[in-house]
Design a protein that fits this description.
Elements: E1 2-6, H1 11-22, E2 26-30, H2 40-46, E3 50-53, H3 68-85, E4 90-96, H4 119-135, E5 141-147, E6 149-151, H5 160-169, E7 174-175, E8 182-183, E9 185-187, H6 188-201, E10 205-209, E11 215-216, H7 217-228, E12 234-235, E13 247-248, H8 253-256, H9 266-277
Parallel strand pairs: 1-2, 1-3, 3-4, 4-5, 5-10, 6-9, 7-12, 8-13
Antiparallel strand pairs: 8-11
Length: 278
């Protein structure tokens, strides 16, 4: 299969490209900076069977509220519509788990209520709505892959696991602001294999991309501390900070129905990250 990938140099995009190439697919990429003005003649000549759209602002501390989210939404809708017009049969675009409203139960496609609030989540959801409205009129499938909490080798240094690991490596104390928060962490290679399974199946509709298992922040820190022999440096505050999303875990029934299963356990994934940062 010929697959066109946007954001191919990013955390998720690069992992996807490596895996898809390893499995025999022909992959071409588009840098995020070109999403506003894609090289349409090159894309036409490549004539992709599928497109996996990963490009978006994702810098920790910026992406949730960045004004450029609106630009990425406009560029994404225009890009995906043109890919469909060119005859691309399968479109896969990345959404986010925080499109869902806060919940104390695993989040399920089509059942759990949506309630995006941040500019990032609202802009992502706008792309979904626009493309789902188009899907019934064209000849292509459109999969909306809601990504939960990816981590692993190649992640931004300001993401949770890397911040904790680097602090411990430098013998600095780690104070956990939200130690009891439960999130669905999924290793980056498992994200890539999930997206490839969705593309290969030509899946149509929203699909959660998570491990299906919730893990407390304190467990992430404890595992990293144990791996690094620095357990004495992890501390919890007397009063935890508030968390708008204290429990964010995916129901992965749809994804598993495509034959996908995660390959990397949390401990093994954190071990890989520690080795890469050492």
């Amino acid at each position: 299969m010929k697959i066109y990938v946007t954001g191919e140099s990013g955390f998720i995009g690069s992992a996807f490209c490596r895996l898809a190439g390893k499995r025999g697919h022909v992959v071409r990429g588009l840098a995020p900076a070109r999403l506003e003005n894609p090289p349409w003649e090159e894309i036409k000549q490549f004539a992709p069977d599928a497109c996996v759209h990963t490009a978006w602002i994702a810098t920790p501390g910026q992406y949730l509220t960045a004004e450029s989210n609106r630009d990425y939404a406009e560029w994404s809708i225009a890009f995906l519509r043109q890919m469909s017009a060119l005859g691309t049969r399968h479109l896969v675009a990345l959404g986010t788990c925080i499109e869902y409203a806060p919940s104390s139960a695993p989040l399920r496609e089509g059942a759990s209520p949506l309630g995006p609030t941040s500019p990032y989540a609202v802009s992502k959801d706008r792309v979904r709505q626009a493309m789902e409205a188009d899907a019934g009129e064209g000849n292509c499938t459109f999969a909306w892959a809601r990504i939960f909490y990816p981590y692993g080798v190649g992640e931004h240094p300001r993401r949770l696991s890397s911040i904790i690991a680097k602090s411990l490596m430098e013998d600095r104390e780690v104070v956990l602001n939200t130690p009891a928060s439960v999130k669905d962490y999924i290793y980056i290679d498992d994200v890539a294999s999930a997206l490839l399974a969705i593309a290969e199946a030509g899946y149509n509709g929203p699909v959660n991309v998570g491990s299906g298992t919730g893990t407390e922040v304190r467990a992430i820190a404890a595992t990293l501390a144990q791996l690094l022999g620095r357990s004495h440096l992890v501390r919890e505050p007397d009063v935890a900070s508030p968390d708008e999303y204290p429990f964010v875990v995916a129901d992965t029934s749809v994804l598993r129905g495509l034959g996908w299963r995660p390959d990397v356990s949390l401990r093994d994934g954190l071990q890989k990250l520690v080795e890469a940062l050492s």
